[in-house]
Amino acid sequence: MQRVADLARAGYTHWVGGVIELDKLHGMADRFVERYRIDRDKSNVYKAIQRGEAVARLLSWCDEKSARAHWVLMLKPEKPMTKTGTIKRRGKSVVLDQAEKWRDLTTAGGRLTLTGYELVRETKPAPKRPAPAQETPASPLTRKEKQAAAKKAALAVQARAVKQKSDPYVWTWRYEKTRLEDLRS
């Protein structure tokens, strides 16, 4: 479940999953290698993302009580290219193989559920802003002290900009509604 949430945080928002017999798992993985190139190493995945291509990851685990494997194929959608070769950062033109029943994690009907839990995206609370600094009368600063203060202020502005660029959402697991009602009764 942690790996699924990690992939969702990394932008893998489309998924398809199911249960399969263990002896058929290898054949299914081979099919996914042909269709979605799930055999790429980290550097090739990084390069594909930089080119705007869709990338996919297959997660599977065995059921302890039977000879079956649960699997989830997660896909990070492609980013469409413009005529000049740059990647469009807006718009969601996603090309998916329609042979699979793809679902989108960002929609209520596409939530991924495992063992009574569902993966949901929640909004992070806004960070508290620090109180404005009060100026105190000080002795005149030397030239070096003024430069150091200006450099420190510039670094603080950069640090705030980096913090503001972070994703305003967090992916987390919660009980499904039916399971929560069972626990309450």
Which range does the strand content fall in?
A: 15-25%
Work out the helix count: 5
Number of strands: 7
- Integer-rounded radius of gyration: 24 Å
Enumerate the strands of the largest sheet in spatial order, edge to edge or round the barrel. Answer: 2-3-1-4
The separation of the N and C termini measures 26 Å
Descriptive terms for the model:
23% strand, 185 residues, 4-stranded antiparallel beta sheet, alpha+beta, 3-stranded antiparallel beta sheet, single chain, 7 strands
Can you offer a commentary on this structure?
The structure is a single chain. The protein is of the alpha+beta class and 185 residues long. The protein contains 5 helices and 7 strands. It has helices spanning 2-9, 22-36, 42-50, 143-164, 177-184; strands at 14-21, 55-62, 68-76, 103-104, 113-114, 117-123, 169-175. Strands 2-3-1-4 form a 4-stranded antiparallel beta sheet, with helices on both faces. Strands 5-6-7 form a 3-stranded antiparallel beta sheet. The longest helix has 22 residues, at 143-164.
Task: Outline the secondary-structure elements.
Blueprint (H helix, E strand, L loop, with lengths): L1 H8 L4 E8 H15 L5 H9 L4 E8 L5 E9 L26 E2 L8 E2 L2 E7 L19 H22 L4 E7 L1 H8 L1
Antiparallel strand pairs: 1-3, 1-4, 2-3, 5-6, 6-7
Summarize the structure.
34% of the residues lie in helices and 23% in strands. The protein has helices spanning 2-9, 22-36, 42-50, 143-164, 177-184, and strands spanning 14-21, 55-62, 68-76, 103-104, 113-114, 117-123, 169-175.
